[in-house]
Design brief:
Elements: E1 7-12, E2 16-22, E3 32-35, E4 38-41, E5 46-49, E6 64-67, E7 70-71, E8 74-75, H1 78-89, E9 102-106, H2 113-126, E10 131-135, E11 154-160, E12 165-171, E13 174-175, H3 190-204, H4 212-222, H5 229-235, E14 247-250, E15 261-262, E16 275-278, H6 281-284, H7 302-311, H8 318-323, E17 325-328, H9 337-348, E18 357-359, H10 366-374, H11 378-383, E19 385-386, H12 387-393, H13 395-401, H14 416-422, E20 429-433, E21 452-456, E22 488-489
Parallel strand pairs: 1-9, 9-10, 11-17, 17-18, 20-22
Antiparallel strand pairs: 1-2, 2-3, 4-5, 4-6, 7-8, 10-19, 11-12, 12-13, 14-15, 14-16, 20-21
Helix pairs in contact: 3-4, 7-9, 12-13
């Protein structure tokens, strides 16, 4: 396989798309962050496709309507996604010749097979890429400088993105899918936090249910994670003058082309300025990640999800996962996130294990940074699927080469419960000795020489009628062996005219 071809790296997130192009000589271009949405402005009545939405071109950020290709974490609107990809691959962004380039594309965790097939069709049939590799964002982070290079053999990554928050353990760079369960995943992301802040602000102050862009900027500018939620909540009940938590956000003024900002102490408000007061909303919205029950979400918080994921891993390796926890994603940029998570994880971890959390300079671009290093390795070349292989075997050729959550994983072991279910149930074996019929005039044989017949049954065998004068046989008791019943000797029938034998010795 020819490795000297340009490579397009595309971290296809649900909110933003992080992209970069690497030349055939390994020189990367400056990375770009493009909104993964088609945005329509009601003020200037203009539609922006992905990269076209910039602060220089858009003059009115009020009442923006979004058409997102992703819904609930999965790519469902392919028409919108193709329109955004067309702009990214054009000369206005990456200027990539898709027919002569290789593509590295990220996909959601637990991506559905039918959606994966559409990914493959777009890459090879629509854009005709030379070769292609598809993976999850967490599998690229070990190649980034998050925990240093080379990375530790065992690590636990927390990916808190737009739709969900996933806890992903890795062993030697391979995801342990047995511990990345849907029960461990949190249905909490940046979208839910922004929508919750919109509801709080609209109920208490201004109606901002249609101002997604502005409220999202308020969340990123004002919100933080509290290390003591109860004390901060009690402090906000007092006077706002003596409260250090209260911040005032000056809403953008589109008539003067002025964006929103936090009011400083020396700012003098104009008569036309509209102020949004942020009190306990600053920390009560991010608190959902640690206590989802405050909004009625029946899920464990992020510390509980981390502890649950580590408990599913081999016991002798759990200490290494506690000591190598990495966080990335836009939600981890909130001030106080690492300190709060570290304090709660220390109370859940064993006393003998150290807890250490790593964070990078820009958690949004951590997968892209790792991808730029990964495409320079020979392992990436071995994982590529060429267009010729796809045209010959279709998506089946891709499934055979790439291991994901549906197939066997490296380092994954069956749980003890599954192993017990595979053990076959033992059958009850009963041995009954039945002497052969001796007939008339034949001498009686010794009972020890009687012919025996082995009967295999799950139920207790029915004992023959003992007849008058015969001693009662002892029935089996629980003290007997569990797997085998006692051997019962049944003498042959006496026959007519023969004298009855005295049961007691004379």
């Amino acid at each position: 396989m020819n490795s000297h071809v340009p490579t397009v790296v595309l971290d296809n997130g649900a909110s933003t798309m992080k992209c970069c192009a690497v030349s055939a000589h390994g020189d990367p271009m400056p990375m770009r962050i493009v909104p993964n949405a088609i945005i329509r402005s009601k003020g200037d009545k203009t539609v922006y496709f992905g990269h076209e939405f910039t602060t220089d071109r858009c003059r009115d950020f009020a009442s923006l309507s979004y058409r997102l290709p992703f819904e609930k974490g999965y790519l469902v609107d392919w028409d919108a996604q193709k329109a955004i990809w067309d702009g990214v691959f054009s000369d206005k962004v990456l200027n990539a010749d898709t027919t002569e380039s290789s593509l590295l594309l990220t996909e959601p965790y637990f991506n559905l097979p039918n959606i994966q097939e559409v990914y493959d069709q777009f890459v090879f049939e629509e854009y005709e890429f030379n070769s292609y590799y598809r993976c999850t964002p967490a599998s690229l982070v070990p190649h980034s400088p998050l925990m240093g290079l080379p990375p530790p053999e065992c690590m636990l990554l927390i990916d808190s993105g737009f739709s969900f928050t996933h806890v992903v353990p890795l062993i030697c760079g391979n995801i342990v899918w047995n511990a990345v369960k849907r029960q461990v995943r949190l249905d909490i992301g940046g979208k839910l936090l922004t929508n919750h802040l919109k509801e709080l602000v609209s109920f208490r102050q201004w109606n901002m249910m249609d101002e997604t862009y502005i409220v999202n900027d308020v969340k990123e500018s004002c919100c933080f994670v509290s290390n003591d939620f109860r004390s901060d909540l009690e402090a906000c009940r007092g006077s706002s003058i003596a409260n250090d938590i209260v911040r005032e956000y000056i809403l953008p003024d589109m008539s003067k082309n002025r964006s929103g900002r936090i009011r400083q102490r020396d700012d003098i408000l104009a008569d036309s300025d509209q102020v949004l007061v942020m009190n306990n909303e600053r920390f009560s919205v991010p608190e959902i990640m640690f206590s989802p029950d405050i909004i009625g979400l029946n899920q464990a918080g992020l510390p509980g999800a981390v502890a649950a994921s580590i408990s599913l891993l081999p016991e002798d390796l759990q200490g290494m996962f506690w000591a190598n926890i990495g966080v990335f994603g836009a939600n981890t940029k909130l001030p106080g996130f690492r300190e709060r998570l570290l304090s709660e994880l220390r109370s859940l971890a064993p006393a003998s294990d150290d807890v250490c959390i790593y964070e990078c300079e820009n958690p949004i671009t951590a997968p892209l940074d790792g991808a730029l290093n990964f495409v320079q390795t020979s392992a990436y070349q071995d994982l590529l699927v060429t267009r010729e292989e796809y045209l010959e075997g279709g998506s089946n050729a891709i499934r055979r080469k790439w291991k994901d959550w549906k197939g066997p994983r490296d380092g994954e072991q069956d749980s003890s419960l599954e192993s017990l279910e595979k053990v076959p149930k033992k059958k009850l074996t009963v041995s009954v000795s039945i002497p052969a019929h001796r007939g008339a005039g034949r001498p009686r044989k010794d009972p020890s020489d009687a012919e025996t017949e082995t009967v295999t049954s799950r139920a207790e065998p029915e004992l023959p009628h003992r007849g008058p004068g015969r001693p009662r046989k002892r029935l089996p008791t629980p003290e007997d062996e569990d797997d085998e019943m006692p051997v019962i000797s049944v003498p042959a029938r006496r026959g007519p005219g023969r004298p009855r034998k005295n049961p007691m010795p004379v």
